[in-house]
Amino acid sequence: MKTPETPVPASRPVPTVITEEEAALGAPDGRHTLFHVEDTRYDFVRVLERRHDGEVLMLAERHEKHGLPGPVAIRRLHTPSTFERRQRLKEEVQLSYRLNHPAIAQVHHFKIHERKPYVIMEYVDGPTLDGVMSLMALRHRPVSIAFALYVGAEVADALHHAHQLSDEAGRPLGLVHRDVSPRNISVSRNGAVKLTHFGTAWSRMVGREETQGALRKGDIAYASPEYLRVLRLTPVADLYSLGLVLLELATGRHLFQDAMEEAAESLRDLPVKVSVEELPSLPLTRLLALMASCTPNEVVRAVAGLPRDFQAVLQRALRRAPAERYPTAGQMRDALRACLAQVSQDSSYGRQEAAAELAQLISEASAARDEAELGDERLFPSGLESHELDAPRAGGKRRA
């Protein structure tokens, strides 16, 4: 007797994943509503940036029940796959709510929509330093020393605020940003500097989930030696990262750029084995070797073309030993501001001057905008040609 076959259930159709851009194109008016938060509606405008870890930064328009609409930035995060990652995501949001500083992009709300996490935050109408450095390359000249010092002092002030953060009981959280890199620092078109993305921050917050194993988060090309070697972290790790950023902003070259171009393939195999959460801008094993072999004399050569006092600030920030750097971000901020006062001489350099210089940088680089893919939608407004981006020249001397 033949055994009757068990009927095979019909397979369920796999739902089609539609991106925000596709949904907007299909909308009658070209606008797609992402979600609502109580009586406030958030409409998708365009994608600003995509990252290797799957994170997407979008520009959206906020429509409140009473009041005028306004722009916000919305980060669609990579959906956490484990309990530990979900806990770290909650920690990021909790930490972000505590940060209240004019040079830190404010986080407004955290939203789970259709099982995807979104962070609603302040929109910075201007490029990241990644974008600024791309513009520098297009016009073949760095920004002014004053611009670099101004940006550095603002970021150091923001870090000082973050490093001093305490919990409700007044206990220091010992926060370390861990990803002070060009992509996480923005300059708005009105000259305001904003430090963003505290998603990789370390802290002593109660209930915090530890990063497992030797996983390195963020762009390790700007990481401190102790972070790369999985050693104990203190806030001065962020000062080393800031030193690397400022050196590249002021000179157009990373500290290890020349060495990276000449490094031998044999440097790939090192005894220290760590992993990274996303693809770095420099290979990890090479970076570890270069970091270990970097001497103070190499830093001296890298900063040689800068004003003497600025050289001294960067040389101290880029000391391999944490104890030899500035003890606090506040002290590094004060040193940078003292340098800025000397460079700008009788006239002060602030938001207005930075805004004018940024506008001029965009204008000058726009002539070569077709030569490279910049990847930052905030650099050139859609549809504008180079002659429409003319801007007044920034005051002060420029570096050759």
Quick recap of the structure?
Keywords: ATP-binding, Kinase, Nucleotide-binding, Serine/threonine-protein kinase, Transferase. The chain is an alpha+beta fold and 400 residues long.
Q: How many beta-strand segments?
A: 10
CATH H-level name of the largest domain... which superfamily? Transferase(Phosphotransferase) domain 1
Q: Which architecture of the largest domain per CATH?
A: Orthogonal Bundle
Helix count from the secondary structure assignment: 12
Order of helices and strands: HEEEEHEEHHEEEHHHEHHHHH
Fraction of residues in helices? 25-40%
| Shape assignment | globular
With strands numbered from the N-terminus, the spatial order across the biggest sheet is 1-2-3-4-6-5
CATH class of the largest domain: Mainly Alpha
Region (Disordered): 372-400
Protein name: Serine/threonine protein kinase
Organism: Pyxidicoccus parkwayensis
Pfam families: Pkinase
Characterise this structure.
The protein is α+β, with helices and mostly antiparallel strands. It has two domains: 20-121, 2-Layer Sandwich (Phosphorylase Kinase, domain 1); 129-344, Transferase(Phosphotransferase) domain 1 (Transferase(Phosphotransferase), domain 1), CATH 1.10.510.10. Helix content is 34%, strand content 14%. The protein is built from twelve helices and ten strands. A six-stranded antiparallel beta sheet has the order 1-2-3-4-6-5. Helix 4 (145-163) packs antiparallel against helix 6 (236-251). The relative contact order is 0.13. Residues 209-214, 263-271, 273-280 and 382-400 have low confidence and may be disordered.
